[in-house]
Amino acid sequence: MAAGVQDYNRTEFDRLNEIKGHLEIALLEKHFLQEELRKLREETNAEMLKQELEKERQRRLELEQRFQEVLKTRAEEPPPQQPPKGPATTQTNHGSDKRSQMMRSRVQKWFYDRFGEYVEDFRFQPEESAVETEEPLSARRLTENMRRLKRGAKPVTSFVKNLSALSDWYSIYTSAIAFIVYMNAVWHGWAIPMFLFLAILRLSLNYLIARGWRIQWSIVPEVSEVAEPPKEDLTVSEKFQLVLDVAQKAQNLFGKMADILEKIKNLFMWVQPEITQKLYIALWAVFLASCFFPYRIVGLMMGLYAGIKFFLIDFIFKRCPRLRAKYDTPYIIWTNLPTDPQLKERSAAAVTRRLQTTSSRSYVGTSTPAGVSRDEDTGRFHGTKKGNFHEIFNLTENERPLPVCENGWRCCLINRDRKMPTDYIRNGVLYVTENYLCFESSKSGSSKRNKVIKLMDITDIQKYKVLSVLPGSGMGIAVSTPSTQKPLVFGAMVHRDEAFETIFSQYVKITSAAASSSDS
């Protein structure tokens, strides 16, 4: 009977969890539908503005056409006849004026018919600011753009792979032939014609491939990927996962591009003077060589160096990383160039070192008051925003945060044993001491909402992933204790791995010390 009641309670709990999951999915669908509705409204407003703009353009064109027609008719019309003012001489003068006006109008008409179109091309008109309409977010459009980007970048990636294969001597015969041909062309001054001939040859092969010929001109064999058919209907979770995947790829790609651009900028801005000095000396050497030596000799020297470096030296350096780290100057310069985040970290580390040295000097210079030990005096420096550390968590005065987490790790405590939403999730800061794991809540001033866990009472600790739809291994730590039915989860931790290593190492240290003392 008791087993049946437990099974019934479990099924009810599973049903509640299932209903909760459906409710979250419904909320996400409602959010996406609201966003699509807002974008559709904006799009309809943009369409109305475009229609009005087109109408105004048509009106302007019609007015310009009418104006041109009026000018033509005025040019073709004869001048008004004037009443005779005198004898026959005035009539002959009037006839000659009339003939000259007719000839002028004919010449103007002929000139406009012949060159009017070219004259209209040079007429200045104000620029029209065309507003590009942004497409709404669509999973189908997103996947199609990803495939287009992959297909567009395929020739560049294949070219880079073939160059790397030539340098790595992937095919010995191909690399040997390329090395001999290149060095011979450089020696005889045919390097530029050789590259132009290779470009013409490649265009000719592309023409034959476009005509249906099957030609494969690649050192590395191309791996044909199976094209996945596009899905017609995607669920909200699949759309969310797709957006996260694209965002992660874009983040990594933009990060690599930013690193390259920042390194080039820092190289020319003398951020690392010892590295930029080498480039400065090299540029001066090349400049002086170009001034005193003929261009043929300078080109021959640079071409021979490039061929030997590409085909021989790089091959040796890639096989021997220690030699490359010692003697490959371009590689050493590139790897030692810092990026902007690295410069910020260095400046922050330098500032912290200065503060530590000044604080240590001031602390050594000041004498502690009588009756107070040095441990008690140093304990005053370890406090939280609400007060001293040991007073916040009701611990002894010798319990202080470890040096790794003096400021703590910001996170949220997820207590799945609680039913109320206010007690289910709490935002705060996590600290680790020699014997305790302390969580300080940021919402309430009382210590009742804080959590103190003794490291000896922990039965299990592991990394945890709060949301399964997110990529990666998660940003949470699950801690199991005998007093809780479900593990306590510290989620939304930016430095999750550092916190986990610190807690786990301190836990192992405490448990091993307790085991050794019990054995003795």
How much strand? 5-15%
- H/E element string? HHHHHHHHHHHHEEHEHEEEEEEH
- So what's the oligomer here? single chain
User: Regions with pLDDT < 50 over 5+ consecutive residues?
Assistant: 363-382
What would CATH call the architecture of the largest domain? Roll
Number of separate helices: 15
CATH superfamily of the largest domain, by name, is Pleckstrin-homology domain (PH domain)/Phosphotyrosine-binding domain (PTB)
Strand order of the largest sheet: 6-5-4-3-9-8-7
The CATH class assignment of the largest domain is Mainly Beta
Distance between the termini: 49 Å
Explain how this protein is built:
This protein folds into 4 domains: about 1-80 and about 95-120; about 165-215 and about 275-335, no CATH class; about 250-270 and about 335-360; about 385-520, Pleckstrin-homology domain (PH domain)/Phosphotyrosine-binding domain (PTB) (PH-domain like), CATH 2.30.29. It starts with a helix and ends with a helix. With about 525 residues, the chain is α+β, with helices and mostly antiparallel strands. The chain has helices at about 1-75, 90-120, 140-170, 170-185, 190-210, 235-270, 275-290, 295-320, 320-325, 330-335, 340-365, 375-380, 390, 420-425, 495-520, and strands at about 385, 385-390, 410-415, 425-430, 435-440, 450-455, 460-465, 475-480, 490. A 7-stranded antiparallel β-sheet has the order 6-5-4-3-9-8-7. A two-stranded antiparallel ribbon has the order 1-2. The model is unreliable at about 365-380 (pLDDT under 50). The chain is built from 15 helices and 9 strands. Helices cover about 65% and strands about 10% of the residues. Strand 4 (about 425-430) and strand 5 form a beta hairpin.
